[in-house]
Task: inverse folding
């Protein structure tokens, strides 16, 4: 584990095919590597959706182990709670620059029915992830969704892609990250994306409200064990959207709440709604500078902090939507987009998969 | 104009590109044409000679940073921090530009055809006869002219093709020098406390005409007419105090 501390600037990139055409891994690699300058080789990662069609109904647990002992403990724990349909080494290749790699395994699992107990499978998996990450020393689940997977580690985006053989996957959507750790260690579990179930988050910036968010999440059973602020974003969307049933747009109002002075200027219904949101979800507010991409099995969302302290650019081309820290990272894989814009601060760009309609309305866009 | 030196910047690392430009400027080349630029940073950084640089493609961060000699024309968009701490001459962008353009700019001109992002013109300043000018053809995000200490910032909203407001919140917050001209009316709630709206005088009009003629010449291919632009009234903003925070730490 290295404890570098340098000035900031991460890079992120996302590509989604709204009609679920496959996007080759090579494209997301090219886009994020184009922004390599924004990272310092102390962390990079990818998340791809639709990459495990052979096990669509299984939770794909990606786990990193420090040693064989914690691997044994974890596997014993998993076998007691899950039916393991398949498991294997996560395929890797020797990549120059990748050092101190953990043991990396993936398990395609289904929860075993627990006698006499009502069980929500997603909750069961979430509890398992928290349990392993908190209680088994040296074992970390870094991906736990269905038909998706995160791949991450210490290195630059090109090395990590090479190591995890990202070029051999194709996905309906990708998000990627190159890291420049500032306040927290550059270690394998601290690379982005941060995930829970099928949520995956890449982030540029700093969540100054981490302590508040973390304590709030603990009340709902989330344990922050990965020593990096971004972890809370993944758990907050799981809590707000999956468990509390908020639409994503409302969840974004909790994460990047409008300022009180702007709420005061709203009509009565809107003012009451947003006042209630700020009162109920005050502890879910993300303070500090951020640009995040949040992906799940239903699509992708880009979101900036309310005063735009980190860059985020979006573009549309046909059924594809791109988001990245820099426009050039989009043009590296899509030289002539139909439209390029800078999303407004605090207003999410929500891109759902849609197999039917051709048009997707771009809201709050800035373009020529 | 001299025959340009053509450089294909495709997949070229920014350091290599900028080293070539610096070396060639030293050898006496005065006209550059950069092809397939895509996000390379610091183009024109610190150059003092009067060279002409054409950029085809998207210019990266800090285009024209610290420079005082060159004229740079970008035939596409530019990313963040165009004209950062620039001292003189000109950057022309035939597209949109990102956040923090003209940060601490102290001279020269920045002509943007389309929209700009957040914090444009932040802390630009004037010294004696050095008066920086930024003209934005489209719309601007929040914090336009924040902490502005000098110079001229003009927002035109020429391509009003959507419902977004032409300028964002916190307009000119902390402004303590210089002048902002905005074509059209600005809702008072968007303005910072340190700024006030005053009447546009004949002297202002003469200045605007002079600056807009130059702007329209740079973008002549789009058929812009200074008189047509001037036909719509401008809002003029100036600081209400030269030291808005003079007492902040003096308790």
Result:
């Amino acid at each position: 584990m290295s404890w570098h501390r340098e000035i900031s600037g991460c890079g992120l990139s996302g590509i989604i095919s709204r009609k679920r055409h496959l996007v080759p891994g090579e494209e997301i690699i090219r886009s994020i590597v184009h922004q390599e300058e924004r990272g310092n080789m102390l962390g990079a990662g990818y998340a791809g959706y639709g990459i495990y069609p052979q096990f669509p109904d299984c939770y794909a647990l990606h786990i990193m182990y420090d040693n064989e002992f914690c691997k044994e403990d974890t596997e014993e724990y998993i076998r007691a709670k899950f039916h393991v349909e398949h498991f294997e080494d996560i395929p890797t290749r020797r990549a120059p620059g990748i050092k101190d790699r953990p043991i990396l395994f993936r398990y395609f699992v289904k929860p075993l029915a627990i006698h006499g107990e009502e069980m929500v499978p997603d909750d069961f998996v979430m509890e398992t992830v928290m349990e392993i990450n908190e209680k088994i020393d040296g074992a970390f689940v870094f991906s736990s969704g269905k038909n998706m997977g995160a791949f991450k580690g210490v290195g630059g985006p090109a090395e990590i892609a090479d190591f995890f053989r990202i070029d051999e996957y194709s996905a309906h959507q990708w998000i990627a990250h190159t890291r420049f750790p500032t306040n927290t260690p550059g270690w394998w579990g601290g690379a982005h994306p941060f995930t829970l179930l099928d949520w995956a988050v890449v982030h540029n910036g700093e969540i100054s409200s981490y302590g508040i968010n973390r304590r709030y999440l603990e009340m709902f059973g989330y344990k922050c064990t990965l020593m990096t602020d971004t972890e809370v974003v993944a758990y907050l969307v799981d809590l707000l959207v999956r468990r509390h049933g908020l639409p994503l747009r409302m969840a974004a109002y909790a994460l990047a709440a409008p300022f009180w002075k702007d709420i005061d200027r709203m009509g009565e219904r809107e003012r009451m709604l947003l006042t209630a949101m700020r009162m109920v979800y005050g502890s879910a507010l993300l303070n500090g500078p951020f640009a995040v991409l949040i992906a799940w099995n239903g699509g992708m969302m880009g979101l900036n902090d309310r005063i735009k302290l980190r860059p985020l650019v979006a573009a549309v081309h046909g059924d594809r939507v791109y988001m990245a820290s820099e426009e050039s990272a989009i043009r590296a894989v899509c030289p002539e987009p139909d439209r390029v814009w800078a999303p407004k601060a605090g207003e999410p760009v929500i891109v759902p998969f849609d197999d039917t309609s051709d048009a997707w309305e771009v809201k709050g866009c800035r373009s020529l | 104009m001299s025959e340009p030196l053509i450089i294909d910047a495709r997949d070229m690392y920014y350091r290599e590109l900028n080293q070539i430009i610096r070396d060639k400027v030293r050898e006496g080349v005065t006209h550059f044409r950069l092809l397939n630029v895509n996000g390379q940073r610091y183009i024109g950084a610190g150059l003092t000679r009067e060279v002409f640089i054409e950029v085809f493609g998207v210019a990266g961060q800090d285009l024209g940073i610290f420079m005082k000699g060159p004229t740079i024309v970008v035939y596409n968009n530019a990313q963040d921090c165009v004209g950062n701490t620039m001292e003189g001459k000109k950057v022309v962008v035939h597209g949109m530009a990102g956040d923090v353009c003209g940060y601490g700019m102290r001279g020269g001109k920045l002509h943007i055809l389309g929209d700009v992002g957040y914090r444009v013109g932040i802390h630009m300043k004037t010294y004696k006869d050095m008066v920086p000018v930024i003209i934005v053809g489209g719309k601007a995000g929040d914090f336009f002219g924040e902490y502005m200490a000098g110079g001229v910032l003009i927002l035109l909203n020429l391509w009003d093709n959507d419902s977004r407001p032409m300028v964002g919140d916190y307009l000119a917050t902390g402004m303590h020098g210089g002048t902002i001209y905005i074509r059209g009316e600005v809702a008072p709630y968007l303005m910072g406390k340190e700024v006030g709206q005053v009447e546009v005088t004949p002297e202002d009009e003469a200045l605007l005409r002079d600056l807009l003629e130059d702007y329209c010449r740079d973008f002549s291919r789009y058929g812009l007419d200074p008189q047509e632009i001037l036909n719509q009234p401008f809002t003029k903003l100036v600081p209400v105090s030269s030291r808005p925070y003079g007492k902040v730490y003096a308790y």
